[in-house]
Every structure is written in C-alpha cells, then in structure tokens.
C-alpha cells in the first residue's frame, strides 16, 4: 500500500465524525464530489469499503473504526507539532479552543473564563463540550478537546492541575429549614431527593452514603445540576451539590445549605490536558488562561462569604 496523502486522512476523519459526505464537504468547504472522490481513493488504497450507507448515514466498517483511532491521534499530533513551532498572538488569533465542562462547570467557571478571553483574546472562540465522564480521557488523548475540568480522577492523564478542594452539602428549600447546620440521619432519610445521573461525574457522595448504610429516597432523576434551584424552590425536594455551587444557588433562589448527616470525603476539582500538547504555544497560553480564570473564581467565592471547606 502506498503512503497515504494526509489530505485524504483528514477527509476520512471528518466523514467518520459526521457520518455524511455532504456534512463532511460543508465542514471542509469543498464540494461533495471531491469528498466522494477522496473516499474512493481511500477505498482503493486500503482495500476496504470503509463506509456503507445506512438509515442514519455513512456507517463505518470495522476497519474504518480501527483506522480512525490511529488516524485521529496521528493527525492531532501532527497539528500540535506544527502549532508548537508557530507563533501565537492571543490578541490577534481567531482560533477556537474546545473545553469540556459539566453544566456545573458552565455555571461556575464560564463567566470568569469568558471575561478573561474577551480581555486578552477578543478574536478567540470557545467551544464548550458537554461532560461525559466516561469519555473525557479518550477525547483528551485524541485531541478532540483541548482541556477538561472534572471533579473525578481521569485515567491515563499525565497532566493535571488541582484548582481547589471541594465538598458536598445538602441543598433544600428554605421553607424546610428547621435551623441548625447539620441534618440528622432521620431528617435526611425522610426527605425526598433529586438524584443526578452519574454521567455528570458526581457519584462520590452517594457511594459514601451507601457505604455507611444511608439510602436516599429518590423522587426525581435528572442529568443536569442547573435545573435544581428552580425545582427545589417550587417543591419539597432536596439535593446533594458541591458547596460552591450551593452558595451560588443560595444567592439567586430561596434555598438553604445544610451539612450532610455523615462524613463524606472532599474532592479535588482539577484542570486536565493531554501531555502531547505541552509544547504548543497556543495550548500553553490557553491552559494558563484557564488556570488564572479558575483561580479567580475560587477567590471570588471566598470574598462572597462562602463557608470554606
């Protein structure tokens, strides 16, 4: 097999992601016939159909799926190597960075991050990728996201910066507040709870409670923390949330904060990135900006009178 043209590899990657020749052509700003021709070249060189038409678009073959793992990683490494040699001026750059955040991260961190971006790099765009905790490490390795902020350890990530230490508390409507700082186990178990799907990356509290024989009575399961204050303010439901977010919610909604009835270990909120991008000037700048923005978030929280963990 002859050496593959890097242009064909890039087209293959886009077809794989979009599952569409038309969609790939649009993203690449080329005509659909040129994408079809590139695919035919790849099929001939690789001796495999690579994609077959199905009800939901172009379905990759087993060989295509295997190749994508290699191709995407290789192209990203080439791009990063080139970026490392290119000069990067944030004040004039128009590139787009991709940051993986949970909905809590969007609430807590985006205002500060965007304020920094507008001040230092007004032409730079930010694409926020919704958190899927079981896929973040893979996205980082492939270069599909430039950085991620997570509250659980991500396997295989050599680069990590702890932003702050956090802990969980119980958030409840103010009308249910009977005074005191800590809920008793009896009070806690009698309450009806909103449960957050584990894909958010916040399963530590439930695991700790279960280990101590404490079971929550779930009345609602959701995928996003951001819906909680409105739900709690209009029902008699309660929820477990990180302290800093609970303080933010309390400032905007009629909710109260209580300590959990059993001790639950705190956790680190960390910034993650892939080790292979450390030589890129652009990525180094982006990580530095995130670090400064997130540090500012923590200081503002303390200044707003938030109880410290």
TrEMBL record:
Belongs to the LysR transcriptional regulatory family. This is LysR family transcriptional regulator. The keyword Translocase does not apply. It comes from Arthrobacter ginkgonis. InterPro entries: LysR-type_TF, LysR_HTH_N, LysR_subst-bd, WH-like_DNA-bd_sf, WH_DNA-bd_sf. PANTHER family: HTH-TYPE TRANSCRIPTIONAL REGULATOR LEUO-RELATED (PTHR30118), TRANSCRIPTIONAL REGULATORY PROTEIN (PTHR30118:SF15). Residues 4-61 form the HTH lysR-type domain. The keyword DNA-binding applies. The lineage of its organism: Bacteria, Bacillati, Actinomycetota, Actinomycetes, Micrococcales. Keywords: DNA-binding, Transcription, Transcription regulation. It comes from the Bacteria.
